[in-house]
Write a structure and sequence with these properties.
It is a single chain. The protein is an alpha/beta fold. It is built from three helices and seven strands; from the N terminus they run E-E-H-E-H-E-H-E-E-E. Strands 1-5-4-3-2-6-7 form a seven-stranded mixed barrel. The longest helix is centred in the middle third of the chain and has 9 residues. The protein is globular, with a radius of gyration of 12 Å.
Length: 114
């Protein structure tokens, strides 16, 4: 397990593992709609809850490089109980890699490659 980043933890949610999927284009979101594979942690640079809404039931957590705890994505994630890391600074991650989110701290979430 290697640490690769961190960000603002929206709420304490324990430790979550899954395959990282980059979702920055509509095509990537649509591909996930047809995927019945293992749990997915969505990584998005600038997308919000409207962009991710078609796949909210297919993801186990969200990592985004933007957003605040009062933004729409954060509100929806809280309502759905989806762990969410906001303002994430990530050294290296690629779609398809297995990651662990440590969302046990009240304020900071840590991201690890497995």
């Amino acid at each position: 397990m290697r640490p690769v980043g961190s960000g603002e933890n929206l709420f304490p949610a324990g430790k979550i593992t899954g395959l990282l999927r980059c979702l920055d284009t509509p095509e990537q979101v649509l591909q996930l709609l047809d995927d019945d594979g293992p749990p997915v942690i969505a990584w998005t640079q600038f997308a919000g809850s409207t962009f991710l809404s078609p796949v909210m039931d297919k993801i186990t957590a969200i990592i985004t490089s933007t957003g605040t705890s009062k933004g729409h994505l954060a509100i929806v994630a809280r309502e759905l109980g989806l762990p969410c890391v906001l303002g994430a600074q990530v050294d290296e991650c690629a779609s398809g890699q297995e990651v662990l989110l440590d969302c046990t701290d009240d304020k900071t979430a840590s991201i690890y490659l497995l």
